[in-house]
Amino acid sequence: MSDITKQSLSELVENIKGKKLSSREVTKAFVERSEKSKELNAYITEDYVNALNKAKTFDEKPNLDLKLPGIPMAVKDLFCTKDLRTTAGSKILNNFVPTYESTVTQNIWNEGAILMGKLNCDEFAMGSSNETSFFGNVQNPIDKNLVPGGSSGGSSSAVAAQLTPITIGTDTGGSIRQPASFTGTVGLKPTYGSCSRYGIVAFASSLDQAGPMAQNVKDCALLQEVISTYDEKDSTSIDFKRNEYSKELTKDIKGKKIGIPKEYRVDGMPKEIEDLWKKGIEYAKDCGAEIIDISLPHTNYALPTYYIVAPAEASSNLARYDGVKYGFRAEGENLIDMYEKTRSEGFGAEVQRRIMIGTYVLSSGYYDAYYLKAQKVRKLIKKDFDDAYKKVDAILTPSTPSSAFKIGEKTNDPVSMYLNDIFTVPVNLAGLPGISIPAGHDAKGYPLGLQIIGKAFDEQNILNIAYAMEEKINFKNNITDWWIE
Amino acid sequence: MSKSKSEYLINRNDNQYEVVIGLEVHAQVTSESKLFSTSATKFGAEPNTQVSLVDAAFPGMLPVINEYCVKQAIKTGIGLKAKINKRSVFDRKNYFYADLPQGYQISQFKDPIVGEGKVILDMPDGQKEVGIERLHLEQDAGKSIHDLDPKNTFVDLNRSGVALMEIVSKPDLRSPDEVNAYIKKLRSIMRYLGTCDGNMQEGSLRADVNVSVRKKGSKEFGTRCEIKNVNSIKFMQMAIEYEANRQVDLIEDGQTIDQETRLFDTKKNETRSMRSKEDAHDYRYFPDPDLLPLEVSDDFIENLKSEIPELPDEKKKRFIEKFKLSPYEANILVSDIETSNYFENVIKKSDVKLATNWIIGELFAALNEKNLEITESPISPGNLSKLINLIKDGTISGKIAKTVFEQMMEGDKDPQKIVEEKGLKQESDPKALEALIDKVIDDNRDKATEYKSGKVKLFGFFVGQVMKVSGGKANPQLVNEILKKKL
To answer: Residue B325 is part of which domain span?
Structure first.
């Protein structure tokens, strides 16, 4: 079979189960394509030899009842993988090899998948363009010198460029959906508490959530079904009845009420985005959904709230990287000197910026004005959604306020960079599921995404809506393999 | 509350100062595993052998609350007659130190698991109630070891993450003696409950001591200083005395007291400034997003209430009412659970009054001399009650009993056997005693004459002579009776 890497996850699973392809053939194809794609810089750590060996072992005694039988997969380098270096895109963890496996990746290996390597990401998942990674920029396969989005930029690039049939990212403020939107792929941020955070390098604990990134909605549903489990090792994991998302997937969304929030028509939003949204509304109608105008009145406060809550938690979560126990250590005259040198040299500028913001907003005298106020606003934002969901089943918005931008274009303007997350951040603050699907192109031919936001634990519903709309939209990613050596 | 001659005041230049003390006691929760991990908590293990990935704060590791520690804290709250908060919140207290792997301590700041309660102290001049402000759960830090190497510091994380209860008193204590009584009572309650072993040598119980002074009669509090991490009652008392006098000297000298954190130097017997209020850490407390608020149901609390044993105050009341003990005796016997258990085992089969006296008197003195705890007593409660029964039924005299007791202390021998083997049985046959007495009177004719002519003091002499001749075995009561008749 010649174009193995062009197959979707579902096709590969079918072919392996039907013994038309072996795991080794599939793994070899993705390894070879990954090796020819170094220019994308999607990988931080490659584990190809082990992957091929594992594939061979799988083929010797294939268990074809598994959901991901012998499927090779690279994952974001924020997931701790036993015996394979895990860096979180940071110099401070450059030499860190976990002795343990994250619950989410363990769930994936338990279903027969094989680890190919660790994918690039913004340092500690702090960024919207993958430019804060210690391991360098990632190229968007859509066009040279175009960012793949962030923080799961290596993941979005690798899926779009078909270096891996599917992958996982993490989403704290949009880090799955925005890169999916920038690369013409599908990304789901599940309900907070759906996927265990155990073994995922923490950025902002109350917002972080792992999720699948795929070429299509069906693949996305299958991976979500695998990774979402209740986990006693994560106190915020929620024990709810999880669907078999891929099996229960349906395009029948007749009569579903879909809300259009007026507050998402932000000032200065490009006409292309406005048009895309309108088109999306028409597609939804075509699928039989009912469109209802709604209001999410506190939307304007979401971004500032996020940029208080997330850095506050991050400033504390990142305190453990102090050079004492593991990771990078700079020599110092004494303990304080060692701390200062280790953290100054070990963390990049964006991470340091956020640690400073977080430390500031938690400081005595400022706590009430920033952190406490932000928590109150967060409750109001959540209430906005609760109120809206009395009237609708899901909400449709654009995924991002623009298409992908050029590498370096926004690096000196953090606020403009932060604005990228304006449509995704409220979903994290409210702990809701959201999915980005590719829905069109801008004038430059770059992909644009639409976001469908669901009720808590209602992943099935937004997957169904996405599945139905996907067919109507019939999006084709225009990838020319310009980077192939 | 009663104020009398035992009031603790500092006198300077005609001014009398009262000392105001509040304690923050850190009590290690008795638990096999740590507050948020499954690592063991055994004392004295090899360094870094009881450390999990969570305790060492590896990337992606998450805390999971240990339900047993929560139960222990609630039980302690019940023992302190305190309000149990059905909803409490774990916060992060952020600071950097090499033995704090997470870079923050998980503690409870605004919403502790236990609210206001009280502890009753038995002071020489009456009872005193000390208010409890709160009790919260928190993690212990690891240990930095600075003296193993001239340049490097070593870190042992065995303690890292061990569950502590911080018990904060109201500023109700007024003297080193009250502090002594308070710590002992708190320790006693927790040992009754099995929630903290109270072992100060092993660091299971230590305290931060807040001290301020004010002129007697003043209603306002003075500026306080906090003396950090004092690990024995004696040092607490010494530190308070030093610190109170230091503050009085400053006031008398027209100076003001700076609110600060101080350290007690046990070698020099003085407190030293550690950091001023301006230099105080900004701990940037905020709710730990890795943990949900801790919620407990009424049923959960009620179930724990049903597991609470009889506590010292109730036991004392029962001992006084049921066994007619004096408050003094009852206090001593209930002060720790092992003593009260010993006492109750002895009196199962023997006289309460005698048992009380023998335990508080002979047994305590003997144990004290050998530096033994009651649980290590060579004499079992069963054998002590046998000894008491031998006294009670007149088989041996109290004096002989002391000899037997001494032998029992050498190894838990049956007192009955000792009496038989050594022929210590009391002589209570009136005829045999009469013969003895006749001989003594005969040998001391002159003294007998003097007695008869009115020198009654000589009666004691005759008793002594009879006892001597009998080798101490004569029944003293019978000797008295027969002597009176014969003389």
So the answer is: 310-422
Nearest to B92 among A204, A316, A367 (CB): A316
Q: Tokens 């069963």 correspond to what residue? A: B382
Q: B231-252: per-residue pLDDT in tens?
A: 999 999 999 999 999 999 999 9
Q: Given CB atoms, is A360 within the 8 Å cutoff of chain B?
A: no
E strand or H helix at B332, and its extent?
Answer: helix B327-334
Count the alpha carbons within 13 Å of A145 in the hemisphere toward its beta carbon.
4
Q: Which residue of B has its CA nearest to A197?
A: B60
Instruction: Give a yes or no: residue B126 inside a domain.
Output: yes
Residue A126 Cα distances to A312, B46, B132, B475, angstroms: 13, 40, 45, 93
Yes or no, beta carbons of A98 and B289 under 8 Å apart: no
Cβ pair A324:B101 closer than 8 A:
yes
CA–CA separation, B295 vs B398, rounded Å?
A: 59
What is the domain extent for residue A333? 302-376
B454 touches chain A (CB under 8 A): no
CB A447 within 8 A of CB A182: yes
The DSSP element (H or E) to which A462 belongs, if any, is helix A459-473
> What percentage of residues in chain B have a pLDDT greater than 70?
99
Verify that A368 and A421 share a domain, yes or no: no
Helix (H, G, I), strand (E, B) or coil at B207: strand
Q: Does A355 touch chain B (CB under 8 A)?
A: no
Q: Which residue has the tokens 């040998």?
A: B443
Whether residues A342 and A404 fall in one domain? no
Q: Do A205 and B60 touch (CB under 8 A)?
A: no
Count CB pairs under 8 A between chains A and B: 97
Instruction: Count CB atoms within 10 A of the CB of residue B37.
Output: 23
Specify if A280 maps to a domain.
Answer: yes
Which of residues A317, A351, A376 is at a domain's end? A376
Q: Cβ A316–B291 below 8 Å, yes or no?
A: no
B289 interfaces chain A, CB cutoff of 8 Å: yes
Q: Mark yes or no for CB contact A319/B64 under 8 Å.
A: no
Q: What stretch of H or E contains B388?
A: helix B381-392
Chain segment A359-405, per-residue pLDDT in tens: 999 999 999 999 999 999 999 999 999 999 999 999 999 999 999 99
Nearby residues of A6 by Cβ (< 8 Å), 6 or more positions away: A162
Q: What is the C-alpha separation between A401 and B307, in angstroms, rounded?
A: 61
| Residues with Cβ within 8 Å of residue B341, at least 6 apart in sequence | none
- ipTM value of the model? 0.97
What is the C-alpha separation between B392 and B385, in angstroms, rounded?
A: 10
**Could you report the per-residue pLDDT of A169-212, keeping only the tens digit for each?**
999 999 999 999 999 999 999 999 999 999 999 999 999 999 99
Q: Does B60 touch chain A (CB under 8 A)?
A: yes
Whether residue A151 lies in the annotated active site = yes
Q: Is the peptide bond before A151 cis (omega within 30 degrees of 0)?
A: yes
- Chain A residue numbers with beta carbons less than 8 Å from the beta carbon of B101 are 320, 324-325
Choose from A322, A334, A340, A351 for mutation: most chain B CBs within 10 A. A322
User: Considering A10, A102, A175, A196, which one is annotated as catalytic?
Assistant: A175
Q: Please tell me which of the candidates A233, A234, A362 has its beta carbon nearest to residue B286.
A: A362
- Among the listed residues A207, A186, A190, A13, the one whose alpha carbon sits nearest the alpha carbon of residue A104: A190
B114 and B158 inside one domain = yes
What pTM was computed for the model?
0.92
| DSSP 8-state code for residue B317 | H
Question: Best of B54, B55, B62 to disrupt the A interface by mutation (most A CBs within 10 Å)?
Answer: B62
Chain B: give the shortest CA distance to residue A293, in Å. 34
Q: For residue B452, what is the domain's CATH number?
A: 1.10.10.410
A312 vs B: CB within 8 A:
yes
Domain C-terminal end among B286, B305, B324 = B305
